[in-house]
């Protein structure tokens, strides 16, 4: 039901062979250590020096050349660190599971693993946690960046104190709007959610985010979202109100199945239209193994969707 700092710190060992770079064909010649996988990290101006035979004339520094009377070229330094940002939707529905661990716990484990893998690559890890309020973590490198993320995850995923009510069903869009400000262009963004709050505005936000960043969606689902429970009567509660779920009739079980099938299809179509890869993980999955297999799969290409939800 909740995670501890010790558990998330231990995940460091499981993140050693986690590759955050999707194995897809290169789109262009890019700068930096991840040149053949994602968008370029960019180049920072370092200095100007005298022109040498073979230098690219497109790098000419015309101002220095005019002042000195001798040809000079600009020298650039590759940006060595790439920001990685995880957005974690911690709406009330994420504090739920019938098997394994709460969705919020699965999301926290995935975020911690991504954090450890990020600093292993020498990059910076940032986050946006949304649980009725926003908690923004600007990208920070090294172990300090991951430990800061872990502290925030432990607090935000505590069912006793971390959950806050949402005023309406637009909380995911509100978080995506903030995410567009947190994730600087060229970032690698992971969105962890069950995606029950998607609508037409969600598509617009994702498309805007995708224009300048690489985005991966991780959908967390429970076994009840794949198949209805056995026929019977079940007591259900949201922590405040109690009701009863009747799955005795075949018609109600069929309606159950249809509702969740339509939701999963809507999520798949949304991500395909936004060219965002989709990785599904269940509450009973080994999160490290699921990320390892999902992110390393050759089919994890832009616009391709993972259908094998364990």
Could you please describe the fold and organization of this structure?
With 310 residues, the protein is an alpha/beta fold. The chain has two domains: 5-22 and 81-296, 3-Layer(aba) Sandwich (Rossmann fold); 43-78, no CATH class. The protein has eight helices and ten strands. The protein has helices at 5-10, 62-68, 103-120, 142-156, 171-182, 200-212, 250-273, 287-296; strands at residues 43-50, 72-78, 83-89, 124-130, 134-141, 188-193, 214-221, 233-237, 242-246, 278-282. Helix 6 links the parallel strand 6 (188-193) and strand 7. The longest helix is centred in the C-terminal third of the chain and has 24 residues, at 250-273. The chain is elongated and about 90 Å long. It starts with a helix and ends in a 14-residue tail after the last helix. 36% of the residues are buried.
Tally of domains: 2
User: According to CATH, what is the class of the largest domain?
Assistant: Alpha Beta
What CATH architecture of the largest domain would you give? 3-Layer(aba) Sandwich
Spatial arrangement of strands, main beta sheet:
5-4-3-6-7-10
- Helical/strand content category: alpha/beta
Give the ordered list of helices and strands.
HEHEEHEEHHEHEEEHEH
Largest sheet: 6 strands, mixed
| Rg, nearest Å | 23 Å
* Structural shape: elongated
